[in-house]
Amino acid sequence: MYRLSLSILVNPAEAQDVVQEVLMKFWNQRHRLQEIKSLDAWALKITKNHCLDKLRSKHRRVEDIQMAPVKADGQANAEQLLERKELLEQIQRLMQRLPEKQRMLMQLRDIEGLSYEEIQEVMDLSTSQVKTNLFRARKKMRALIEKTVNYER
User: Fold this and answer.
1) Which of 65, 50, 63 is closest to 17 using CA atoms?
2) At the topology level of CATH, where does 1-63 sit?
C-alpha cells in the first residue's frame, strides 16, 4: 500500500498518511473483512482512491510512478549496484512519459505483481481494458527503451 501511495503522491509523508487512513478504514470495517473476496485488491483500491482524492483536493496532477525499491543481493558489488540504480532511474524517467492509466497499470502488474483480476478490481476496468492498456504501455516502453539505446550508441 505504501509503495502504491508513494508512486502516486511522490511525497513520503503524504503516502504514509494515506496508508494510515487505509489501515484505519480496515480497522473500522474489520467485521466485513470476511465478505471481501481479495483483501489485497480491496486494500490497493482504497489506497488508490484515497491518493487520487488527496490529489484532487490539492488540485495537483498525478506525478511519476516510482519504481519499487531494489533489494541488493549479497553478491553484488558497488559498481553493479550503481548500474542497477541508474537503470531503474532511467526506466522511471521513461515510465513518466506514459499516460497516467498505463503507468498505474504497469506499476500494479509489473512492479507490485498483482493479478489481472486484482488490477481489474483496483482500477475499475474490465479484464480486456487492463490487458489492452498494459500491452500498449509495454509496447510504448519498449519503443522508448529502444530509442534510448539507439541514441546512446
Assistant:
1) 50
2) Rna Polymerase Sigma Factor; Chain: A (1.10.1740)
